[in-house]
Amino acid sequence: MADVINIVFMAGKPIALIDGRQISSRSIFLWRMVQAVVWMVGASILICLLFFPATGILLFWNVLIPVAPALFVTGIGIWRNVCPLATTNLLPRHLGLSKKKKLSALQMGVFSLIAVVALFIIVPLRHALFNSSGMATALLIISTAAVSVAVGLVYEWKSAWCSGLCPIHPVEKLYGGNVLVSVPNAHCDQCMNCVVPCPDSTPNISPKSSTKTIYHKLSGLLICGGLPGFIWGWFHVPDETKLTTVNAFLSVYRMPFTGLAITLSIYAMLLQVVKPKSERILTAIFAASGVACYYWYRIPSLFGFGLFNKDGQLINLTGILPQWGVLIITVSVGMLLFYVLVVRERNKKSWLIRPQFAAKQRAMPGKSSV
């Protein structure tokens, strides 16, 4: 059956047929409930960052963020359905307040490059600011939410934020190239072709799936080749709370950008020698290297075995868990990630199941179209 969802009506309620399985309005209601709960959890973390900063920083940076990369690899569609910023961004569209403008290919390319640059600028600032300041992290969240709402008021569905300016989206596309599961789209009730290719509905999407403009090409090259080294360099910088000079403040970028330059250069050189049909494998290897590197350093730091004392610590298990135990965990996670992203056969699944195309809607007699 085609990936377009055919809408029929049963007892006055819309039922979506997906590969022969019925997705009822009750399921959509359940997704809305989950979205509301996750949004309230996000709001609660934001309140903690403002009024109970130590707790807020722990919950945001040491609980929520470490889970995200693994979720991107296995079932990013779930996150795309419930992300609090996505829910905030799409409120104008759901409330009928959006102007529903469509982005041109040039605008989409520029937005994708801005997202990658924003990621590389913001993440090192964790060491200088966000990891130690609840207020700074809260302001970061509030400012990104404001931008997401602003573009949501102008542009159609997920095009400008979730598939454009969001700094996390380039990582989603890099890690989500071979997901284990696809789920129904709980935001878009019909496909408006607002983004081509749609990251939610295109099987085995990657940062290099679109090469329409030089901005698309540059953003894809930067995130695919540069992210593994950037991650490695980031974990070799300690958190600093007393950066009194501009040079000291900018020092948090030295190692991440050095690592970025090294792996980007290696990736660019390999692109010149590998066959075009092998480029996907090369990109998958770099994607797996990036996420495996993240957990190689992040898992030990969560449990007190990090490179820099208590940086990134969730709970101190140094007196309980042996060093070799942490090594086994990190190696196992890395091997699993390489298997999912590189070794496992591509299953041609998209993050979300594409809803019905708006242009193909047909209302049944006596019924209004969905």
Summarize this, please?
This protein is mainly alpha-helical.
What is the strand and helix layout of this fold?
Elements (H helix, E strand, L loop, with lengths): L5 E5 L2 E6 L2 E3 L1 H27 L1 H30 L1 H11 L10 H18 L2 H6 L3 H19 L8 H5 L3 H7 L7 E2 L29 H21 L11 H5 L3 H20 L5 H24 L20 H21 L8 E2 L17
Parallel strand pairs: 4-5
Antiparallel strand pairs: 1-2, 2-3
Write a concise keyword list for the protein shown above.
single chain, 370 residues, mainly alpha, two-stranded parallel sheet, 13 helices, 58% helix, globular, disordered C terminus
Q: How is this structure best described in words?
A:
Helices cover 58% and strands 5% of the residues. It has 370 residues and is mainly alpha-helical. The strands form 2 sheets. It has a 3-stranded antiparallel sheet. A two-stranded parallel ribbon has the order 4-5.
Helix content: 55-70%
Q: What letter string, H or E per element, gives the SSE order?
A: EEEHHHHHHHHEHHHHHE
Largest sheet: 3 strands, antiparallel
**Total DSSP helices:** 13
Task: List the quaternary state of the chains.
Answer: single chain
Calculate Rg over CA atoms.
21 Å
- Enumerate the strands of the largest sheet in spatial order, edge to edge or round the barrel: 1-2-3
- Number of E-type strands: 5
**Residue fraction in strands:** under 5%
Which whole number gives the mean pLDDT? 88
Shape: globular
Low-confidence regions:
1-22, 361-370
